[in-house]
Amino acid sequence: MSRYLIKPSTLKGELVVPPSKSHTLRALYFALMAKGVSQIRGYLPSPDTHAMIRALRLFGAIVDVSNTELKVDGLGGKVQPAEDVIDCGNSGQVLRFMGAFASLIPSYTVFTGDASIRHNRPLKPMLDGLTQLGAMAVSTRDDGYAPMIIRGPWTGSKATISGEDSQPISGILMAASFGAHPIELHVTNPGEKPWIELTLHWFDKFKIPYANENYHRYAIQGGAKIEHFSYTVPGDFSTAAFPIAAALLTHSEVTLYPIDMNDPQGDKAIIPLLQQMGARFEIDAAQKTLTVKKGGTLRGCLIDCNDFVDALPILAVLGCFAEGETEIVNATIARKKESDRIHSIATELKKMGADIEEREDGLLIRQSKLKGATLQTYHDHRLVLSLSVAALAASDESIIEGVKAAEKTYPNFLEDFTALGAKIEAIS
User: Domain 3-18+236-427 has what CATH class?
Assistant: First the structure.
């Protein structure tokens, strides 16, 4: 299966939202450092998850994998050298989280990954921070990208790094919590703040002390000791955006669960944003359900996307169907994800007839009537999912190339959407 043939569709029914990738990977990280066997139930069976599991095993953890849960016999804080090179696959989180972790260890660790990791996922902020903290942290080609070599331990106590991308911040903070001595991390231009909150939510879970001064300065004591835990991964708001958008654009009623509006995931902000644009939802907090209701008319607006920048591609699709203009701003970091998402989504939506203008930090979209087209996805899961949603609401059939990338966050996309009535056919 390498392509989807998608025809205009109407949807109806209920859908279980895939588990959160970001929570899954953080749960694995803390299970690595915990004493005893931790259970992670309802995890996301993503290539990123499997890359993280490989990394944990190479660092000495024992990981038992079943269809429903992961059991991790952790290190109890006793870090040890990696057995082999760490292949991060397509995962920026594995690269940044485990790269920072490796800087605690007084031995060399080599990290690599796929073409996106080696050419589009910048490492300079993290390399700068780890170097200031006394570790060796270098890009093998001296270009600020993987492959990279890390050697610890930390001898310094202060670092200042750029914070447009949240992952290096989270990686250093998590490593620091288990480090040998207190550190201060100063951050210029902090962005993607809800993803930092997600990391600090895990600190709170284990009562790991920290200070956070408006995302510009963090103080971490180090020396954390945590016990094994049991955890059930919640639904992923980033992924829920796609069936929500599909229901809105095909004028369908669909119920999604579990949707926990109390979870700290930043992409939950897309729910009130869409309500502001005119979407109608029925939210049951007790049952953790969200139902997309028929009858709403979307209106364009100005969207500061930085707190939920992963939603940029699907917001661009929604903008094509919203009355007036939709302007997405403060999303420059979207150019440094699995693809240059600002450029790639604009390029592909133009093939469908979209009136869309690329800006340095975002997009300007005017209401457009989309037609079917053959669309590229740039090995980017959010492009596969966003363009598939656009195709469901287009005037005729589309072909989506490179659909395997969707497995990164939505491995059951085809089965789930066809069960709702979407006319999607996998073709070779």
Answer: alpha beta
